[in-house]
């Protein structure tokens, strides 16, 4: 049996799609760096090094939107796109895990 088909992405401008893609790349790297999560320092170091370039790409995506006159962020539409692209799971890696009950 095949897994269920994910919902379609909402209609996005090219700049909005670029923003979402760059944002999720940054989120993924920050999740790898999160010191509250298990991992090794080398993996965190590599993620931190890559973060510089990805943050610049995120800045460029936002600058492009602004230059094109896309001055409003349509949060509900972009949130739907993030959910379709597994953004909830990916951003959860940024949180501090709950303290286990003593």
How many helices? The count is 4
Shape: globular
Radius of gyration: 16 Å
Tell me the series of helices and strands, N- to C-terminal: HHHH
What structural class do the secondary elements suggest?
Answer: mainly alpha
| Span between termini | 42 Å
How many domain modules? 1
Spans where pLDDT lies below 50 across 5 or more residues: none
Helicity level: 55-70%
Q: Bin the strand percentage.
A: under 5%
Mean pLDDT reading: 91
Query: How many β-strand stretches?
Result: 0
Biggest β-sheet: count, sense, barrel? none
Structure write-up:
The chain is mostly helical. It has one domain. 62% of the residues lie in helices and 0% in strands. The chain contains 4 helices and no strands. Helix 1 packs antiparallel against helix 2. The chain is globular and about 45 Å long. The model has no long low-confidence stretch (mean pLDDT 91).
